[in-house]
Amino acid sequence: MKLARDFYEQPTLQVAQQLLGKSLVRVHPQGVTSGIILETEAYIGLEDKASHASRGLTRRNAVMFGPAGFAYVYVIYGLHHCLNVVTEREAYPAAVLIRALQPGEGVELMRAWRRKQEIRLLANGPGNLCQAFGIERSFNGIDLCGDTLFVDDRGGSPADIVVTTRVGVDYAGHWKDMPWRFYIAGHPGVSKR
DNA sequence: TATTGGATCGCC
DNA sequence: GCGATCCAATAG
């Protein structure tokens, strides 16, 4: 069943870990795509120099300062989109980046949007999974407790979770060393380092 | 108003 | 290893 607001209001590191093994679902007029969340990263508070929120409230990051359970979607490198779920309380900027999925329903739709055939390459990375699910800028700020994009808790919790440092944040001083990346151990769909 | 660089990806 | 490609964030 669909995760409710109180799930996202928990501490960000808990949300990041508990999302692993759950299903991200996107309902589209052409059909449904879903996938098991394999990899996440936490971005927590104003002090975290790796977070978009580290320089305070701006137009781009405004959703991070809002209530939990909403999507923060942004464009990166002018080409790709990244999907985050906002966590914790209003006015405290925190979010979890979804980095990889194991494709479930709607593989043919994902193949069409990705223009790739191989299952392993459909959602193995934050930009790729957004392309596979048709997630773009208009998804910024949508309610994950709604019916378009949400997380379903069907399926169990993964046995082994690997905890390590985040990808692509070398500019963030000592914050780059925080062990805030989580992924399901040994899964081939996890994005590469 | 101008400049800079990024929570990436895929091909060289 | 490097280019793509563009807009938000800063500085001026």
How does this model look, in words?
The chain is of the alpha+beta class and 193 residues long. Helices cover 15% and strands 28% of the residues. It has 4 helices and 8 strands, in the order ααβββββααβββ. It has helices at 5-8, 12-19, 107-114, 126-133, and strands spanning 23-28, 31-44, 71-76, 80-86, 94-103, 149-152, 161-164, 181-184. Strands 1, 2, 3, 4, 5, 6, 7 and 8 form an 8-stranded antiparallel sheet that branches. The structure holds a DNA duplex (12 and 12 nucleotides).
List key phrases describing it.
single chain; 193 residues; alpha+beta; 8 strands; 15% helix; DNA-binding
What is the helix tally? Answer: 4
Strand content: 25-35%
Strand-pairing-aware structural class: alpha+beta
**In terms of per-residue confidence, which ranges show pLDDT below 50 for 5 or more consecutive residues?**
none
Topology:
Elements: H1 5-8, H2 12-19, E1 23-28, E2 31-44, E3 71-76, E4 80-86, E5 94-103, H3 107-114, H4 126-133, E6 149-152, E7 161-164, E8 181-184
Helix pairs in contact: 3-4
The structure holds a DNA duplex (12 and 12 nucleotides).
Give a short overview.
This protein is of the alpha+beta class and 193 residues long. Helices cover 15% and strands 28% of the residues. The chain is built from four helices and eight strands; from the N terminus they run ααβββββααβββ.
